[in-house]
Design a protein that fits this description.
Number of domains: 2
Strand content: 5-15%
Shape: elongated
Radius of gyration: 33 Å
Length: 404
């Protein structure tokens, strides 16, 4: 099964970068043929490996720890051996799976993937280092602020810890494989574009907007760049010396990052732009809500009910940013969306809280005034009644303070 290039290009940037690289690796090692057998370990409910491969490959065999109600997905319990004989597949792939395997079971998992692979094994996983861990914590924080919940995959990353790349290579080499590594997705791109994707998911017609923005990002932003910190590393392992030589020629070693790149830098630029947008379009509205005491309750309701309009304005900003997308401009303009969206939410919440307090104070003042008026009315009525009684009795008027 193969989907159109246009459909593939609309996938979220990180996913597109991951599976495009996988398809490149496999097609450079294996000519498309119905006879080629590929195993996707930890494939999940989607057929992503199959979708990104070019036409001509046979259907991909898929496994995961559960079957997701898919009769074609083979369930394999955690830490169990793969239910296939040695060398049963020309290629075995495990895409962002190793970090979801408990550390005590990772060596066995890697050896099992090598065992059932005839030609090549491809394992991709986040790089276990402090910059990547910090970026994941930043993304998890953004997810919680937007959706009031934890991102379940990243919870497991934190619980298990990310794979040590040196340990992964050592395990594969100890099993007799030659290993070539390829880094994938610049860390700054991974954090910024994933955060922007979260923000776009909250707008009306979010899926269509995200697809359009992703298509532009996938066309403009490369999946890797020598000498900088990346999010993910591919480990390509083979026991075939000829394949190993071709891999080494195609993917030569590159120098490691020279500096600890700050993945939040580009977010700050976009954040400043959205701050100016918020001040221009939303500040006056909130000030009017607080200032207009008589229409306060009605206006407050309109602010809450106007959430969709607010989101549509953010969508229009995103569309405008995407229109002039280039490599660095796209990164800078898309990345700050989360921080500014959070700032807008906090500003609105603070303004609404101030307005609520003002309304409460006003209500208390009105209640006090009403109580005073009621006491004055009662006293006036009592005095009037006494004067009427005296007039009926023919008594001379008396001072209000005199005893009756």
């Amino acid at each position: 099964m193969s989907i159109t290039s246009a459909s593939r290009d609309s996938y979220q940037f990180d996913l597109h970068a991951r599976y495009s690289r996988l398809a490149e690796i496999l097609t450079s090692m294996l000519a498309p043929s119905a006879a080629i057998r590929i195993l996707d370990v930890g494939a999940g409910p989607q057929r992503l490996t199959e979708e990104f491969l070019p036409a001509g490959f046979a259907a991909v065999t898929r496994t995961d720890v559960q079957a997701f109600e898919d009769e074609h997905l083979i369930a394999v319990p955690p830490n169990a051996a793969l239910p296939f004989p040695d060398g049963a597949f020309d290629a075995v792939v495990a895409m962002d799976v190793l970090e979801h395997v408990a550390p005590s079971g990772r060596d066995f998992f890697l050896r099992e993937c090598l065992r059932v692979a005839k030609t090549v094994t491809v394992v991709a996983a986040p790089i276990g280092c402090e910059p990547v861990r910090r970026a994941e914590l930043d993304y998890a924080s953004a997810f919680r602020r937007l959706f009031k919940a934890d991102e379940p995959f990243l919870v497991e990353h934190e619980d298990f810890g990310l794979p040590d790349p040196d340990q992964v290579r050592s395990t594969l080499e100890a099993a007799g494989a030659a290993v070539v590594t390829v880094d994938n997705v610049r860390l700054a791109d991974w954090l910024a574009l994933n955060v922007a994707n979260l923000v776009l998911s909250t707008v009306n017609d979010g899926d269509a907007v995200r697809a359009a923005v992703s298509s532009l990002q996938n066309a403009a932003i490369p999946t890797d760049e020598p000498g900088v910190q990346h999010y993910r590393r591919f480990f390509i392992a083979t026991r075939d010396r000829g394949v190993a030589d071709r891999l080494a020629a195609q993917y030569p070693d590159v120098a490691p990052p020279q500096a600890d790149e700050d993945p939040n830098a580009a977010l700050l630029v976009l954040a400043d732009q959205l701050k100016r947008y918020a001040e221009r379009y939303h500040g006056p509205t909130l000030e009017a809500v607080v200032a207009d005491r008589e229409l306060g309750v009605k206006t407050l309701g309109e602010v809450v009910a106007g959430k969709d309009k607010h989101i549509q304005e953010l969508q229009a900003v995103a569309d405008g940013l995407a229109e002039g997308l280039r490599r660095n401009e796209a990164l800078q303009r898309t990345e700050e969306a989360l921080q500014r969206a959070n700032l807008l939410i906090e500003q609105q919440a603070a303004a609404l809280e101030i307005h609520a307090q003002a309304l409460e104070s006003h209500a208390q003042a009105l209640r006090s005034a009403l109580e005073s008026l009621e006491r004055l009315r009662a006293a006036s009525l009592a005095g009037l009644a006494r004067r009427i009684v005296r007039r009926v009795r023919g008594e001379a008027p008396r001072a209000e303070g005199a005893r009756s």
